[in-house]
Amino acid sequence: MKIIWLNKNSELGIVSFTKSNVTLNKIASTHFKDVEYVMVGLDKEEKKLYIKPIDNNLLVRGDLDKEELFKISISKTYDRISSVMLINLIKEVQDVTNKKFYSKFNEKEEMLIIDLNKEVK
């Protein structure tokens, strides 16, 4: 018999898309509780979306281009990025409107990775 012990902290987060919002469920939003802004990256070949929380110290120092930052709204059960422009850019790679995808936080790179190939069915 081969037993695989399960880890309750390894659950995947869910990221939902509408025509104007990117919404992170409670699990996906765990690492975003103390931030106001995020950077969003897109790998068109791999069809992966990256959301990186931006530390407030970086904002104060002014090291970042403000045009690359997206405001994230924090609540108790989810976080949300509201941007029609962002959704339209993502849709150039894959239609995500009214769909949900699995996500995982990469501790080393300090970013949430959403695999647009792995839709929640």
Task: Provide structural commentary.
- It is a single chain.
- The chain has 121 residues and is mainly beta.
- The chain has one domain (14-119).
- 12% of the residues lie in helices and 42% in strands.
- The protein has 2 helices and 9 strands, in the order E-E-E-E-H-E-E-E-H-E-E.
- It has helices spanning 56-61, 84-91; strands at residues 13-17, 21-25, 37-43, 48-54, 69-71, 73-74, 78-82, 99-106, 111-119.
- A hairpin with a 3-residue loop joins strand 6 (73-74) and strand 7 (78-82).
- The chain is globular, with a radius of gyration of 15 Å.
Number of helices: 2
Helix content: 10-25%
Radius of gyration: 15 Å
Broad structural category:
mainly beta
Amino- and carboxy-terminal Cα gap: 31 Å
Q: Which whole number gives the mean pLDDT?
A: 91
Residue share in β-strands = 35-45%
